[in-house]
């Protein structure tokens, strides 16, 4: 390809992008002008869009685009100057022009000269009925004063470049330039950023180890000082005194260097984690697009479909700027289009019927998008006639889906669920819009593929409402991470009904299967170890950890070994060579770099059904074996609320917990009893936490006891002050709700049993 050809190809690509943006402006403006032809702001925006397209088409040599945009601009200018009142025929013709411009700007288009001539002639007749026979061409001499006189390269005036120059930068969003990036590169960037975030978390154990090493070295230096005091009463040779002095000096220098490097590593780890988090958040945001991206052309489609059916229908949209993952947007377009067409065809009545019912002649469809609890919530409502429930009931009987007595007793909710069955339709004849048997079941199938749900509600004579809930992103999933057979698994929160601890007496046998009582009903109980083919292990607790999962109407309790905590996981697709892994949808990495498998809940429930059908579902045995002694933890805090919260959290995990009301009370308890861990606040009366830790580190019996400082102070200097005093771990009290306290305790002293 020659340089000139490459330049032309680049310009044509820019023209295509320009046309896409300007046609959207034209479509939005024309639909608004159809309701009120005198709105000056929409007339101005449409005229400018047509004018810009004409200039862009001239620059790249697309004469067909120049001709179409020119006659559209003439029509809009006439309306601006009040020489013409835009009617339905003008709006139809202008919208036809936008379609023509889209085809012209599409590479490989099949728009021929007859199509252009016919359109120019049509616009000529609408603008001047007496000029119906005038030639269907646009003289190139007819220009407005603001346009360049010539587009020859030899023209040096800056005015000649005023139209094309901005085209290379016009594709903007929120005032920012937009770059075109492939999905593969974007996914790779998100993957690398998530791994970077995980890698920074691996610095934490290194930092904790250096803190312990610094503390042990301090203990060694103090022991050397005590040895020096004892040896003063003995006559040492000069050589021995020098060796002892060198050892003290070297140890002191080493401790100083270690303290300095530990502080530097602490600072580096904190900054690295912050930057990695920002990088990850930014990369994730790159996948998000405004909901408006899926709405392109929908308002026009509703309007045109309504006119073809003899109806006046308007689409109102709220929440266009709601951010959604690109992949979710792409998969939402088809079900949304189907629901909108369904609302126009089945929901909205004809103008005559609406007027007789006391409604405006124009029907209204509202589409609202919003965020709610990590989900994209869509509500699509129309003010039509609603669903004819008696007609649905008759159709159920006619199709043999239910006997007449049963159908007569069905509730409204039950009747509406039949509309989602494959092949179910209320139309007896096939039209271009309805009656092919491809109905709401297709919508439900597509929404379920997005791990979402759709619900239909209606009010007779007032309209119908579809409620859709889908994840905001398929790249990230908020999950509950649990332990099964010594491995980590993640259950998406969207499928979790609740978590609970079951005592042995709460498990009952019903019809030979294990159940427990939950919200007024018996819930079947299954072992995650059997479903996921993991070895069954005893967690040493008197209670059973259960995750209650739900998929539509199916609900089960899944017994696991341990709740690790709630996590936001970056979804890592499984290698395609593995095929479909039973009960698993994807993988992810935890903060420490370990792998976690994300459970496919729908598949898991199918596995439960298979085990039930074959009679192979195993019972969960609760064995009361002799338990090893529990580890003891001393909690020191002057706040009763905090003490009780920590005590309940730790006791719930199986630890033996004692409490003290301040530093002095805690010091007395430490000297009189044995503990495996000290958890202390900083600000307390009589003796604060720093003094308590300092006393403990100077005591020969207690100096090796692990210490965790828990404080409301989350500043860097406060954290460093606590660690320098000899603490092994520093935690902010705001972290209690996410199992951070329990995870830190396990990291320091392990599980509750010795």
Plain-language structure description:
GO terms for molecular function: phosphorelay sensor kinase activity. The modification Phosphohistidine is found at residue 51. The protein has 754 residues and is α/β, with parallel strands linked by helices. It has five domains: 3-177, Four Helix Bundle (Hemerythrin (Met), subunit A), CATH 1.20.120.160; 185-287; 295-436, Histidine kinase-like ATPase, C-terminal domain (Heat Shock Protein 90, 2-Layer Sandwich), CATH 3.30.565; 476-614, OB fold (Dihydrolipoamide Acetyltransferase, E2P), CATH 2.40.50.180; 632-749, Rossmann fold (3-Layer(aba) Sandwich). The protein is built from 22 helices and 25 strands. Strands 12-16-17-15-14-13 form a six-stranded mixed beta sheet. A five-stranded mixed beta sheet has the order 4-6-7-9-8. Helix 18 links the parallel strand 21 and strand 22 (656-660). Helix 2 packs antiparallel against helix 3 and helix 6 packs antiparallel against helix 8 (238-286). Mean pLDDT is 79; it is low at 1-7 and 132-173.
The CATH C-level name of the largest domain is Mainly Alpha
Total count of helical runs of at least 4 residues: 22
| Strand arrangement, major sheet | 12-16-17-15-14-13
Beta-strand residue percentage: 15-25%
CATH architecture of the largest domain: Up-down Bundle
Low-confidence spans: pLDDT under 50, at least 5 residues?
A: 1-7, 132-173
End-to-end C-alpha gap: 75 Å
Biggest sheet layout: 6 strands, mixed
**Percent helix:** 40-55%
Q: What structural class do the secondary elements suggest? A: alpha/beta
- Please tell me what the overall shape is: globular
Number of domains: 5
Give a count of the beta strands, DSSP E runs of length 2 or more: 25
